[in-house]
Amino acid sequence: MTHRDPTGPVCSLTLVALLVILSTEHPSLGAGIQLRDNGYDGVLVAINPQVAENQSLISNIQEMITEASFYLFNATKRRVFFRNIHILIPATWKANNYSKAVHESYEKANVLVTDWNGAYGDDPFALQYRGCGQEGKYIHFTPAFLLNEKFTAGYGARGRVFVHEWAHLRWGVFDEYNNDKPFYINGQNQIKVTRCSSDITGIFVCEKGHCPQENCIISKLFKEGCVFIYNSTQNATASIMFMQSLSSVVEFCNASTHNQEAPNRQNQICSLTSAWDIITASDDFNCSAPLGGIELPPPPTFSLVQAGDKVVCLVLDVSSKMAEADRLLRLQQAAEFFLMQIVEIHTFVGIASFSSKGEIRAPLQQINSRDDRKQLVSHLPTTVSTEAEISVCSGLKKGFQVVEKLNGKAYGAVIILVTSGADEHVGSCLHSVLTSGSTVHSIALGSSAARTLEELSRRTGGLKFFVPDQSNSNSLIDAFSRISSGTGDIFQQSIQLESTSENVKPHHQLKNTVLVDNSVGNGTVFLVAWQTSGPPEIVLFDPNGRKYHTNNFITNPAFQAASLWIPGTAKPGLWTYILNNTHHSPQALKMTVASRASSSAMPPVTVEAFVDRDTTSFPHPVMIYANVRKGSYPIQNATVTATIEPETGEPVMLKLLDDGAGADIIKDDGIYSRYFFSFAVSGRYSLKVHVSHSPSIHVLAHSVPGSHAMYAPGYIANGNIQMNAPRNSVGRREEWAFSRTSSGGSFSVLGVPAGPHPDVFPPCRITDLEAARAEEEVTLSWTAPGEDFDQGQATSYEIRMSNSLQNIQDDFHNAILVNSSKLNPQQAGTREIFIFSPTFFINTPEYQLVRETQDSHRIYVAIRAVDRNSLKSVVSNIAQVSLFIPPNSVPVLARDHLILKGVLIVIGSIGMICLIIVATHCTLNRKKRADKKENGTKLL
User: Fold this and answer.
1) CB atoms within 10 A of CB 420
2) Per the UniProt record, which residue ranges are transmembrane (predicted)?
3) Would you say 349 and 315 are in contact if contact means Cβ atoms under 8 Å apart?
4) Which residue among 172, 301, 546, 873 is least crowded, i.e. fewest CB within 10 A of its CB?
């Protein structure tokens, strides 16, 4: 909708940072990166099991990070460096005196080395999903980038690239270039390159031959094919977030060198704040001071660790509390599914249980066949104890005894702890859990489960789940389905396609379809679970119409579950299932479908759901994310729905978006996001995400949507242009459909008021405001925020403008108010367009002088949304526009000249001015004889 005037994602609430003080006596082995005495410890680099063994890869990683450490130390003005790095060697590589991995796993890595880079070619990148100043998820390198020296020509030394990506990952700063908007017109009507700092010099070159005449400049804009080639020798020392490959660049842009006019992501997301200001405001810098003296820090030390045998022990609560709300039955169904389908081949598995005391139910047994799986299932508990008292520590002690039978230690083992009761003494065994070297995944059943369970998981790097006491919840099976070996080998892991549960009336049915796409199909299983005795009538149709009945399923009456394994590779397409409740009372019926990759040549689509924080306090929202990818290809245009289950009350459905607005930081990067603030009660909340994709929608990954180091197209050395090899083509377009489900674990909310409460949720910040001039009007466009954060419909907008960038940034309230009284906000997520005439500036004598002198008059515009209770969002990003550019003129760079492509003569000193004038005159005369398509523009 377009509105005419006739005459935040950061929201305005500051999200609470919940600090957890770790024990100094027993620091967490699973705590990840730690900064101590200016040095980073615990950085984990993991090599994917699919990467071919190559010892040069290890040595190149070590060289890269060693170089990065010294570069980082100087760039941060002697603040931080890398002290200790762990490199996780995949189990698929031959043993080579590597240490045994303890808590290290591929899923916990800060730096990933893997193929299947897809949309990114061989670009190194950091996956960022949160706002300015917030940590990212991981850094990604391909083996080709680390092994092939050709990439250093465009990216620069690998150590410099690592520091660029580290700044994304650790400090939440963003790129200072913009491939989509490589040029802009500044306030002096000059063509400028989107960069930081603006002191970096070079020339414009018509790279692709599309530029007519002899100029890259057409009607005040740059045509496609014009690129900016940089001088290899520079005086500029910034910035690492722009072009780390330049030898002179040794620091980040600061307040004095930052280019606030450049239309880059750093300015947009960080509100025109320099990268250095963001970095120095981080916890790392608040807790450290520069090292004195002139000596460099020691080079980092590297620990090479390799995962050993996969060892898992189920530690299950069998206290009398498990008899409530069908908890034991649901545990049996979920544990059987885990043992029969989820846990990977060759894994050692054992089982322990506990109430007030612990018990070993099954010693470690390696899974090599289906019979091995069945044998383990037979040891699952079938009854509960008469004791209500529980001792989690007793259960964990037995679990450790189970896993230690293999190698004498629990290093690298996985404990899956399931409990429903309260235990005030869990902390008494925290030390033994931490020193065991195991990872604890915790599953809390019901609202009375011990609140300290999450601490065990957090401190050991494990996952945590909550399962509400709802008969129609499938959260327990979803939790077990999410737990993997942590090796990173997606081709061996089970992938959940469907998870549905519904209370079905007597003689009614649950009917639905699930899509098996061609990236999966091996080891496909359909699991049906029910609540009362006797299975429902089951009917299943494959895509070809073949019909399966109840008698085709393997039924376990004791666990009230039935399974159907499809031999070979399941047929791709829609499978239809019908569950008929033949009983005379309503019951919960559940369907779960899982599969594995169909081929090692094609990575399957994966979904990872997570939240931005483990705990929040009302009214601060939780941000929900779903990372949807095929290999590393971001999947666009998918339908992503989150289901959030509280301890009591009905579940909440929430559609997640990848539109670059609201909670979503970057559009089309495959990370779908949304604010969640519909808190019913205080307590735990369970998260599950369902993703579907229509075959009629294109999957398009033609660009690099993440944060990545800049690839220089070329450079100028000794007056000659040297073009680098073009980057690998990353375009890809496919048409296919899929369906996925994934648990996102749990989070907790504190302080939710009972009963009705006043509105405390403002609209979120607008982060994508753009401005363009048409004649003497300005067109603004942005994505509408909501009444509450990114949901609903705001009441009004407050638009202000100024001819001073600093004024509108620092004093928005006193900037000139634009009349937007007839602008009615649309629903959140809708693209808004508003056209107005900046008459305040046009009618001033200064503007009339601008027209006479054919100069440019720059204005800056910002906006904020207001809801019906007058709650206001944070001020948006600032857009800028030139009010007047003479229609027949060409924007020029001060003192710029046209020159022959390939020739850039910059010689001499002040004492040789005359010689420079003669050389320039000769160059201009020669231009007329040159091929008109071969040209450039000098930038001084």
Assistant:
1) 26
2) 898-924
3) no
4) 546
CB atoms within 10 A of CB 694: 13
Residue from 854, 848, 876 nearest 768 by CA: 876
- CA dist 523 and 594 (Å) reads 8
Instruction: Give yes or no for a contact between 314 and 358, defined as CB atoms under 8 angstroms apart.
Output: no
Q: Residue 416's pLDDT band (boundaries 50, 70, 90)?
A: very high
Report whether pLDDT(890) > 90.
no
The answer to whether residue 256 scores a pLDDT higher than 50 is: yes
CA distance 49 to 491: 10
Whether the predicted pLDDT of 697 surpasses 60: no
Distance CA 574, CA 46 (A): 37
Cα-Cα-Cα-Cα dihedral sign, residues 52, 54, 60, 66: positive
Dist. CA 324–CA 502, nearest whole Å: 20
CA distance from start to end of the chain? 43
Alpha-carbon dihedral sign for residues 700, 209, 178, 805: negative
Q: Around Cβ 140, how many Cβ atoms within 10 Å? A: 21
DSSP string spanning 193-234? ES-SSTT--EEEEE-SS---TT-SEETTEEPTTEEEEEESS-
Pure H helices in 246-311: 265-269, 275-280, 283-286
pLDDT of res. 9: 39
The CA-based dihedral angle spanning residues 55, 61, 64, 69, taken in that order and rounded to the nearest 10 degrees: -130
Report the percentage of the chain scoring pLDDT > 90: 69
Instruction: Name the 3-class secondary structure at 324.
Output: helix
Which of 199-213, 459-473, 699-713, 890-904 has the highest average model confidence (pLDDT)? 459-473
Count CB neighbours of 573 within 10 A. Answer: 14
Structure tokens at 179: 């491939």
Confidence band, pLDDT 50/70/90 cuts, at residue 464: very high
The residue among 352, 443, 334, 449 whose CA lies nearest residue 400 is 352
Segment 601-621, tens digit of pLDDT = 889 999 999 999 999 999 999
Residues carrying an active site annotation: 165
Residue 100 pairs with which residues in a beta bridge?
306
